[in-house]
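pinned: reference chain
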Amino acid sequence: MRPRFSLLLLVPCKLSRSEEQRKRETEALTRSCARSSTGWVGYRASKAAANQTIVTLQRELSMRSTPSIALALHPGTVVGTNLSKPWTREEDAGKKPGVHDAATATGKLLDVISGLGEKDGGRFLNYAGEELPW
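pinned: its structure tokens
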């Protein structure tokens, strides 16, 4: 029997492959959060809650007789959304790593999901099926 999936899609910010890019993006996020009305407290609390929800849900699902998994998925940067409009252009889709239009992002996430099994729960994966750090 194929597992059922319980999914929570998280799109906190664009994650990159390069450590230097990740540092720059983290610094930009830090500046952005510092300027926002919720600041770091709101961001950290919501991120921690979402992460813990996936991990806890996976633990509970693993104790049931019906195989199910919970995981978090990061679609990359999806152009044309309200989140990405301020810093991406729709013509960037497919030209930059991790930048997709909505249809491509959806297809990539469905490809990742189709390759998962019972032991893959409780993880945070990107659009290429690569594990991301919590």
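why pinned: The helical segments are 19-35, 39-62, 102-114. Strands lie at 4-9, 68-74, 77-78, 99-100, 124-126.
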